Amino acid sequence: MTPPAPDKKKTNYRQAWGEAKALMWTHRRTLAIGFALMLLSRAAGFVGPASTKWLMDEVVGKRRFELLWPLALAVGAAALVQAATSFALSQVISVAGQRAITELRRRVHARLLRLPVSFFDETQSGVLINRVMNDAEGIRNLIGTGIIQLVGGVLTAIVALVVLFYLNWQMTVATLLFLALFGAGMAYAFKTLRPVFRERSIITAEVSGRLGQAFGGARVVKVYTAEKREEKVFTLGAHRLFRNIARTITGTSAIGALSTVIIGAIYVILIVFGGRAIISGQMTIGDLFMYVFMVALVAFPVVQIASIGTQITEAFAGLDRIREIMQTPTEDEHDASRQRVRALRGEIAFDSVSFEYRPGIPVLRDVSFNAPAGTTTALVGSSGSGKSTLISLIMAFARPKTGRILVDGEDLASLRLRDYRANLGVVLQDNFLFDGTVLDNIAFSKPGATKDEVLAAARVAHCDEFVRQFPDGYDTVVGERGVKLSGGQRQRVAIARAILSDPRVLLLDEATSSLDSESEQQIKEGLRALRSGRTTFVIAHRLSTIQSADQILVLEHGEIVERGTHGALLRLGGRYRQLYDTQYRAEMDQFINPGEEMVRTE
Ligand code: ADP
Ligand code: MG
Fold this sequence. Notes:
The protein is an alpha/beta fold.
């Protein structure tokens, strides 16, 4: 349960500032309107304090009642102007800010999904969710009300300070001393508290992530009687959260206490200095009243500067992390210059392909083979020999380190990725289903498909048999990752999904666990229908699949050690024979009617 590492990286402020400037430039018109509104609003804010002086010194002091109504009118009008401008300000700026956040989220998301699979293997999904949701949110402080309020606050404070110095400079110096103290305290508090708040969101994400897994994996938890262990993990998390919250409570109440002390001190100053100044005739009563109001106009921006400083720092950090994602090369960034793929025949060949995930640890070595269009190639070999890796290279999830993959004689690296992938279909051991209906999950491979097309594919894949038993039929919701279906049912949905997309190249990872004989038979039939006429690569665990393959590649430590047909390899008496004797012979003996299995299916 360590916090996501990338967040700890130092922010490149110079780069982020460039990013921020570009962002502000894009929204310059909105920001300009915002500034105009803010200036109006702030100017109107001075009417109140100034009128107090007039009320005290002129109306009350000199009994000039004719000024009462104009004064009241001015104050009322100023209040209206303030109300209207701050309403318009939040309408214009906050809405624009939220729109920009939405747009940035959309861009980050679009970019993320175009990054290579290896990126997703290396980055926790929680971290990625954080990029899309929280880091994008940070820009609110740059183009939203944050920066406008900050500038407005500073301008107001400067004007107010000039007036304060004019009214009584000694009192102002004393007040400023305490305000500076207050500002320093606030800045310190925000600086220390903000990371704690950030940490809170990380802890919350971790605790809820773990909860999700524990609830989702309730069966595993129960079978291994891990309830107590999970309880302990949760308790630890909950307590971390508690300690974090306790710290912020201490922090915020300390801020409250500091504010009270400072306000008290300023009152003391006002009474001591102000009282003496009035008695000595240096200040009028009206001056003192105006002074009090003006002090508030200075104090408020102090808080703002202290808080917005850290918020902008965070916005920069978020932008910096987003920039990193936006600069990570996507899989398809060269697509424009790559060759279009129209009708694919589906011939796949490897030409001395080597591959490694981590430098220096080869996973595939000098792999060469040719799979003519429409044929089936079975991959066999012990666990970890590189079968799945070979398949992911065909899916272009990764690129060979050396050597080439040829598709219809063209280098895969020169083909448009999107075009090429549109010709692929996959059925894996653990097929990922989305939390939607059976129908949605099948139609996922072909968004524009008509219902009839989907149902036809479902029938070929033998989905009908089990779907008919559901009260909601094809509208049955399958649950997260398809948990409400059995493994065999998920497999059949995946087969239907692949049939619907009508791929030229098919990648199969056969289920190792023996399914119940009925669904086994149905899956076999579904796969047979799916495979016919397509170039198929299958990580084979069933003897029948291996026997019916046009060629078998035997992988060992990333190398093809033997190749050929079932019969030829058996006669060879090498590694395949060994595998056959230990793994498949037993299966063979179990067949009631082995003769049928010997028949080639294609
Ligand atoms: P198989 O499918 O034949 O069981 P794999 O192709 O899955 O074998 O794995 C081959 C080797 O590559 C294994 O040693 C495995 O640990 C390693 N490997 C697989 N996937 C990754 C990955 N994403 N990152 C690093 N190493 C990996
Ligand atoms: Mg595998």
